[in-house]
Amino acid sequence: MKNRQSIIAYILLGVFLLGGAAYYLVPFITSSKVEPINLNVPAEAPNFVKEGEVTFLKNGKVHLKIDVEIAENENERAKGLMYRSSIPDSVGMLFIFDRPEPQSFWMHNTSIPLDIMYVDANKKIISIAANTEPYSDEAVPSLGDAQYVVEVNAGFSERNNIKTGDAISF
Hints:
With about 170 residues, the protein is α+β, with helices and mostly antiparallel strands. The protein has helices spanning about 1-30, 75-80, 155-160, and strands at about 50-60, 60-70, 90-105, 115-120, 125-130, 140-155, 165-170. The chain is built from three helices and seven strands. The longest helix is centred in the first third of the chain and has 28 residues, at about 1-30. It starts with a helix and ends with a strand.
């Protein structure tokens, strides 16, 4: 009888030791890759600063005006509307490039869905990427040579009847 109790005690001790070892080792065995912290993330989302206006034209007539921030250099274009939690529906961002060529944007670090309007050198809208996916690293290309790009809240184009072939001025 005493021998049987000793065996059971050793078995229980072994179970507790294995359980403790497993409890300690499981986090090391199952740990997933941890992404490094991006130290370039601003502590506070940038506020909108009006730098100009974009006017949407239909058949040469004023259809709608919005206030815009202007991204005219490489750093401003790379940052775009990243790190914004929202923007008013009456504002957007105008990207100005040196020459017309195929453009491609992405939504990296952009938390709000956007409509991206690609505009040629004659300031005619050549394509609209509607309701882009937040945080996506997938390329959103223009469908031709664009010299200007206007970003606005997703759904803006549809709500305001802005279509390919319409024009802008600024």
